Amino acid sequence: MQALTDVEEIARRVLSGDRKSIAKAITIIEDNTAESKRLIASIYPSTGRAQIIGLTGPAGSGKSTLIEKIVQEYRRKGKTVGVIAVDPTSPFTGGAFLGDRIRMQELSTDLGVFIRSMATRNYLGGIAKATKDAVKVLDAAGKEIIIVETVGAGQSEVEIIKVAQTIVVIHAPGLGDEIQAIKAGIMEIADIFVVNKADRENANKAVMDIQSILQLNNKEATWKPPILKTTALTGEGVPELIEKIEEHRRFLEKEIGRKRSLGKAEAEFIEAIKEKVVNSIIDDLKKEGRFEEFLEKIIAKEMDPASAAEKLLHEKLRRH
After folding, report:
1. Helix axis angle, 34-43 relative to 19-31, nearest 10°?
2. Strands lying side by side in the sheet with 81-87
3. What is the pLDDT of the chain when averaged over all its residues?
4. How many angstroms separate the CA atoms of 14 and 241, rounded?
5. Which residue from 233, 105, 104, 125 is spatially nearest to 189, judged by alpha carbons?
6. Residues 96-129: pLDDT tens digits?
7. CB 3.0–4.6 Å: which of 166, 169, 259, 260 could bond 190 by disulfide?
8. What distance in Å separates the CA atoms of residue 199 and residue 258, rounded to the nearest whole number?
9. What does the pLDDT read at residue 168?
10. DSSP states of 177-201 as a string?
11. How is the chain classified by DSSP, letter by letter?
């Protein structure tokens, strides 16, 4: 078979659901070349149909095992599923399955499931731009359910709200001061809380701890995040979790779906503008030989980075 090199052809095959082309498209996106921009432009009109679920929480809470059971449950319902597992890996080595994700490889033989592990590439917030675009690829390829599992990094996990429609925060008893981590940032973005490993003796206490924090949140909300208990190893509680995810989907469609969609589109648009502007300015500086000049002044403590950026901006505005 001839190698897939033409972006338009790859995009066409992605839209037909071809697995090899989906994998190739995500690789192109990770390389962040001009081809990746053409690819996203080609498939973008076919996005927006998938239900995107974000799962986040501390390391050791059993996210990967729970995802395996969630995928199996959706497959029993006849849904096609895509999984993006975000790893805290080096940008030099790329993404790789973590040890606890090996079990998910068993799902990869199911043609209705596509699994990809991706690196954060040191992107703050745990969600690289490539991850967001990979979700678009799976969406355009016709995956009905897309699950994004993020690295357990505490407050930075709030970035997942820019990708997913329903945010599930996984928690497990016995991880130390894990409730404090929830207080730090991801508390407010959770649509559903899950206490996994519910067969442990402190599971009920974990539920009560989350309930007490929710009661301290005085913000009025039309959606009250439920707290569920699951045992991922046995699959206990997973059907109930799926039902709550579906209930939240129906709530979004009825209540605030468009508002959240507008917020997501705004965040993506602003991020794209920033990327274009920053890349353009840096390219111009390097062509003019001034990039090193600014760096030398910063190293010599003649100018701090913020002042250098402000000086540069004033220069740009005077030119235009």
Report:
1. 130
2. 113-119, 81-87, 145-149, 51-56, 166-171, 192-195, 227-229
3. 81
4. 30
5. 125
6. 445 445 556 677 788 999 999 887 655 544 456 7
7. 169
8. 39
9. 94
10. SHHHHIIIIITTT-SEEEE--TTST
11. ------HHHHHHHHHTT-HHHHHHHHHHHHHT-HHHHHHHHHHGGG-S-SEEEEEE--TTS-HHHHHHHHHHHHHHTT--EEEEEEE---TTT-----GGGGGGGGGGGSTTEEEEEEE-TT-TTS--HHHHHHHHHHHHTT-SEEEEE----GGGGGGGGGT-SEEEEEE-TTSSSHHHHIIIIITTT-SEEEE--TTSTTHHHHHHHHHHHHHH-----SS---EEE-BTTTTBTHHHHHHHHHHHHHHHHHTTHHHHHHHHHHHHHHHHHHHHHHHHHHHHHHHHT-HHHHHHHHHTTSS-HHHHHHHHHHHHHHH-
Separation of alpha carbons 314 and 272, rounded Å:
22
Q: Residue 84 is which amino acid? A: I
Cβ neighbours of 126 (radius 10 Å) = 22
Global confidence as pTM? 0.79
Write the single-letter amino acid at 206.
Answer: A
Determine phi and psi for 44, rounding to 5 degrees.
Answer: -55, -40
Which two tokens mark 253? 């469609």
Residue 297: count other Cβ atoms within 10 Å of its Cβ: 16
Euclidean distance between CA atoms 22 and 5, whole angstroms: 13
Look at residue 88 and tell me whether its pLDDT is greater than 50: yes
Q: Which domains does the chain have, with CATH numbers?
A: 1-46 (no CATH), 48-255 (3.40.50.300), 264-319 (no CATH)
Single out the residue of 121, 177, 185 nearest to residue 153, CA to CA.
185
Question: For residues 25 and 33, what is the distance between their CA atoms, to the nearest angstrom?
Answer: 12
Q: Is there a contact between 194 and 158 (Cβ–Cβ < 8 Å)?
A: no
